[in-house]
Amino acid sequence: TSLLTHAKGRLFLNCATLTPNVHVEIDRAIERQGGASLETCLASSMTQARRGTLYLMCGGKPDAFTRAKPVLVALGSTIRYIGGAGEAAKVKALVNMVMNCNTAALAEGLGLGHALGLDLTMLREVFSQTGAASRVLETDGEDMQARAHDCYFSAAHAAKDSGIALALAKSVGLTLPLAAATCEQYQRLVALGRGDLDKSGIAELTFKGRIQ
């Protein structure tokens, strides 16, 4: 509440990954105080933030988006206006849900390849040239192989964001088995005290001889 005391005439950019309903509540609270807000969801990591090349998905009133444009172009190389308050948060939840599922699937593929005695560098190259290719393979494949899980997007955040997507699915009567299984894996990693690892750390659960 104290943050909004002087909200009148100000524009707030909310970059937090929250449920769509919370974004809507925040937007309304700021509007009641005479301010404006724009949910500014990021589909990138710290590396892109430092370079000013974030992928930004925005939700809120069109005039708030227009007003924020000078700041947005300094932060990101791709800026998309999705719709009203809460809409960008829905898209962000789905982006992270699919990314997390892809990460879990890659961890299982490499983990099985390792157990079968395959050369994982060769396997990653084959994956990259076939239907197994993915953005996650590019960013996380080598890290999974080398057990290099320096954090850019934590396992704890992956668990949280998958949970947001599953709650959205439940709200519209959908069951998402793959997303649920992925969420359980990340929750398991958190329960083992490894939630501070990068999302690639999920491979620690699928490679033989690592976390059991």
Write down the Rg: 19 Å
CATH level-two architecture of the largest domain: Orthogonal Bundle
Shape summary: elongated
Structural class: alpha/beta
Query: What oligomerization state is this entry in?
Result: single chain
Tell me the strand order in the biggest sheet: 1-2-3-4
Cα-to-Cα separation, first versus last residue = 45 Å
**Low-confidence regions:** none
Question: Helix and strand string, N-terminal first?
Answer: EHEHEHEHHHHH
Q: Any idea of the CATH class of the largest domain? A: Mainly Alpha
The CATH homologous superfamily of the largest domain is termed N-(1-d-carboxylethyl)-l-norvaline Dehydrogenase, domain 2
Instruction: Give me the number of helical elements.
Output: 8
* Overall domain count: 2
- Provide the helix percentage: 40-55%
